[in-house]
Every structure is written in structure tokens, then in C-alpha cells.
From TrEMBL:
Transmembrane segments: none annotated. It comes from the Bacteria. This is SAM-dependent methyltransferase. Signal peptide: none annotated. GO terms for biological process: methylation. Residues 44-138 form the Methyltransferase type domain. It comes from Pararhodobacter oceanensis.
Amino acid sequence: MSITDPFWDKAARKYNASKIGNVPAYERTLDHTRAYLTPDANVLEIGCGTASTALLLAPDVAAYTASDISTEMVEIGREKARAAGIDNLRNLHATLGDPQIGPGPYDAVLGFNLLHLMPDVESAARQVHALLKPGGMFISKTACLSGWRGLLRVPIAGMRLFGKAPWVTFMSTEVLESHIRAAGFEIVESFDPSGSPMGHFVAARRL
């Protein structure tokens, strides 16, 4: 069983109740993601939170596995899936490298608002690569914190000491994309749905 994350466990209910800040950008992200999915696809989402996005995308594919490191997030996601009557969606308490995710292969792996929360982005991308079929898609949206946003390092580090913030990796869109390429992917699309690098969308194909 995956370890859990106390920060996200504590934040789960509040996170689930929060509203989407930029609905048009979120819908653009969904539309661009759906363009790479097929009705017979087997899809894995890592860092799914309370499965809000999984519930919207699962009807478009054959099988959808939504995983998260937070036990509370996963339980909320399971409640929502049962209420929605979606039977091709399974919610797992797991993260990359956990055996219950399985060796794959998956047709697509999704990671929304996730990579900047991982200490080693290139290693995470390599793990995703290993889970995909040849030609499979890695689709992500990432907060790219560079330039003046680097000033947030100090306050975030202080908040982490008191359990008030998660780990955050600071990187530019260029660095993010270089990590993904180095892990064995060809980037076929990248853009900022909201016009800001705080939500940088990347669709990458496994070579």
C-alpha cells in the first residue's frame, strides 16, 4: 500500500468543495485531453485528487484508473464515482511505483497539477514512460514557477515546516519540457490554457 500524505489528507474535504478558478481554461484542458483518448483506451491518472476530472473523462474511454497518494482524496473520489454510477472507473490509493497501479501498459497516463509537486520530475516522467505502450500518450498540466515566482521558495519552505504546504518544485516551462523529452517522449503539443504558465499543458508521445 502506498504511503499517504498528511497535508493532502487534511486538505481533502476543503479541496473537494473548492470551485474551479478558471472554467474556460479547465474546459480547454479537457477538450485537448479528449483529443488523445479513444473509446477503447486504458487510462491511468496519477494525482487524481478527489477524481473530479476522472469522472468527466472516464465515460470517453474503456477503463480509467484514478490514483492518489491521499487516502482521504481517494475515499471522496470513490463516493463520487458510486453516486455518478460510473462503473469503468477505479480509484486507488497509490502513486508511481506502487504495485497496485500495475506494470501497464496503458494507452495514456494523465497528470494534472502534479509534476511541480514531485521532487524529481524527470524520474517521474521515466516511470510514466515505463507504464505506457509504445506510442502511448503522457498528458500533463503543470504549474511552472520561474522568474519572479521563485520568490515563493522561502515562504513555501517555511510553511512546509509546519505542515501547511506540500513540496513544490520550481521550474520554467522550458525545463519542464526538457525533463519530459529526456525521459523518452516526443512533445506533440504544449500551450497555456489560461494564458499563464501556472497551468502549462503538455501532450507527449512515448518514443
